[in-house]
Amino acid sequence: MAAAKGFREGLLEAVPTLRAFAVSLSKNADRADDLVQETLVKAWDKQASFQPGTNLKAWLFTILRNEFYSQMRKRKREVEDSDGSITARLSVHPGQEGSADLADFRKALALLPEDQREAIILIGASGFSYEEAAEICGCAVGTIKSRVSRARSRLQEILSIEGEADFGPDAISTQVTNSAALA
C-alpha cells in the first residue's frame, strides 16, 4: 500500500516535466496533454514492472517517448478525413440488389420487340447518337427515336417504374450508407 502511494506521488511529481517533454515532441499542447495522460495510464497499469529504487522519471520519459513514436507510426498509416468525403466514397450500396435489378432488366429487355430492343441498346447502352443508330439500322432518325421512346415506355411498364425515385438503391440502404459516411 505504501509502495503504491509512493508510486502515485512520483507520477504526480513528474507530470510537469512529462508535459514539457511531450510539448517539445508533439509541438501541440492538446496532443501533449493526451500523450501525458496515456503515459500515466500505461505507467499505472504496468507499475508492477517498475523496479523500486530506479529512476521513475526516466522510466516515465521512456514510456512517453515510445508512445509518441507509436502514435506517429500509426498516423502515417491513417488518412485525414475530417469532412467524411473519403469515407463517403468508400461506402457502397449492397451488391445483391444491383444484381437482382440487372437480372430483372435483362428479362424485361428480352420481352421487347426486336426492333425496339436493338434501338434502345444502340442508343442507351452503346452510346450511339440517333443519327448513327438510324444509319446502322437502315431507317430514318425519327423511326429510331420512336422505337427508343416505345422501348423506354414498355420497360417502365414491365419493371413497374413510376419515376426517378424507383432507380438506384432503396431509401433504407441510402440512409444507412449516408449515415456511415457521416459517422
Describe the structure.
- There is one protein chain.
- This protein has 183 residues and is mainly alpha-helical.
- The protein has two domains: 2-77, Orthogonal Bundle (Rna Polymerase Sigma Factor, Chain: A), CATH 1.10.1740; 95-169, Winged helix-like DNA-binding domain superfamily/Winged helix DNA-binding domain (Arc Repressor Mutant, subunit A, Orthogonal Bundle), CATH 1.10.10.10.
- The chain has helices at 2-26, 29-45, 56-77, 85-90, 95-110, 114-125, 130-137, 141-159, 171-182.
- Helix 2 crosses helix 3 (56-77).
- The chain is rod-shaped and about 95 Å long.
- It starts with a helix and ends with a helix.
- Keywords: DNA-binding, Sigma factor, Transcription, Transcription regulation.
- Pfam families: Sigma70_r2, Sigma70_r4_2.
What tags apply to this protein structure?
183 residues; mainly alpha; Arc Repressor Mutant, subunit A
What's the layout of helices and strands?
Layout: H1 2-26, H2 29-45, H3 56-77, H4 85-90, H5 95-110, H6 114-125, H7 130-137, H8 141-159, H9 171-182
